[in-house]
Write a structure and sequence with these properties.
Layout: H1 6-25, E1 47-57, H2 72-87, E2 92-102, H3 108-124, E3 128-136, E4 141-151, E5 167-171, H4 176-184, H5 192-203, H6 209-218, E6 223-226, H7 231-242, E7 245-249, H8 266-272, E8 279-283, H9 287-296, E9 302-309, E10 313-317, E11 323-326
Helix pairs in contact: 1-3, 2-3, 2-6, 4-5
The structure holds magnesium ion.
């Protein structure tokens, strides 16, 4: 039997296949799935809407790596990377709109797996898939817009709010996702126990929503972003937009665990690796407060990695105490 593809299935066939999932996501709303628009009730009084959109394009942001069979991870990752932007401002997810493009010969099972992963991640984090559009495209081209809620009394943890004297913190262990990408790309290898963990960090990042909400509620002076392009590149965005400098202390950094012969050092992965979707934030609150706030929700811990000082750029302070400016290498998507 010939393999069913997007071209054979058509947009109507795909919608029919997805109907149970779409109906579940739009249950209780004024319009069922399949109309021109989605209609939702207004947010509660005192709530602001928080919007973001992010795309993933095959060959630019991902490949169908042999070591990452199927496409469930792809749906998860698209949702997670968008929800992570809501996390960076402490917003609570509400709904999402998907623009889905794939080649006509894309097999039906991959498309179904993609939607399963998207459904899993959105549902796990309280977001509904309100609607979307399906097109044929030369390669997989996926774009998700998400909207969330942020109560009016809460601060907006803008990138430009870093001030001299604040501590610099990061959740988790950035660099693991980039290490996973090296393994997927065949550039490095690692013992199986390490490798599957690092690959998982790249394919199924966890949006730090609970952490972001707890931090925004606790610290009125917070500046925060999610790390998508690496600590140095994203840290430089905070520094530039704030008119301040970040001094990172070498011996405080929570480096990822990689084998000695990995081909890229743990320090380099930490500083320049992308797509961990951890939260980088600054606050003048005592270090013990940041730890307590995150412990209370049982989420990812945060490490104080440095201090905001007068000046510009991101600097690494090693044992000699001399700050050295770091240049963003960022995360090159398949250059
Ligand atoms: Mg972001």
């Amino acid at each position: 039997m010939a393999k069913r593809t997007l071209a054979k299935l058509g947009e109507e066939g795909l919608l029919t296949r997805l109907a149970p999932m779409l109906q579940r996501h739009t249950a209780g709303l004024p319009l069922p799935t399949g109309d021109d628009v989605a209609v939702s009730p207004p947010p509660g009084a005192g709530q602001r809407l928080v919007w973001t959109v992010d795309a993933m394009v095959e060959g630019t942001h991902f490949r169908f790596w042999p070591a990452a069979p199927g496409a469930r991870w792809l749906g998860w990752k698209l949702a997670a990377s968008n929800l992570s932007d809501l996390a960076s401002k402490g917003a609570r997810p509400l709904g999402a709109l998907l623009s889905f493009g794939a080649p006509g010969d894309a097999p039906e099972h991959l498309i179904a797996e993609f939607y399963d992963g998207l459904d899993e991640c959105l549902t796990a984090h309280g977001a509904r898939l309100l609607g979307g559009d399906t097109v044929r495209a030369p390669q997989w081209t996926l774009s998700l817009a998400v909207v969330g809620l942020l109560a009016e009394g809460l601060p907006i943890a803008a990138r430009h709010r870093a001030r001299a004297g604040q501590g610099v913190y990061v959740t988790g262990q950035p660099g693991r996702a980039a290490a996973g990408l090296r393994i997927l790309e065949g550039l490095s290898s690692a013992p199986t126990t390490y490798a599957s963990d690092l690959i998982d960090a790249h394919l199924r990042p966890r949006p730090r929503l609970a952490e972001g909400q707890a931090l925004v509620a606790a610290f009125p002076d917070l500046a925060m972003l999610d790390v998508s392009d690496g600590i140095v590149r994203d840290g430089a965005r905070v520094a530039d937009q704030s008119g301040a400098a970040l001094h990172l202390e070498r011996d405080r950094l929570p480096l990822p665990a990689v084998p000695p012969d990995f081909g890229q050092s743990a320090l380099d992965l930490f500083l320049h690796g992308g797509e961990d979707y951890e939260l980088l934030f600054t606050t003048a609150a005592p270090e013990s407060d940041a730890a307590r706030v995150l412990q209370q929700i049982g989420g990812a811990g945060a490490t104080r990695i440095g201090t905001v000082v007068e000046g510009e750029g991101v600097h690494l302070v090693e044992a000699d105490g001399v700050p050295r400016r770091l240049t963003p290498k960022g995360f090159e998507h398949f250059p």
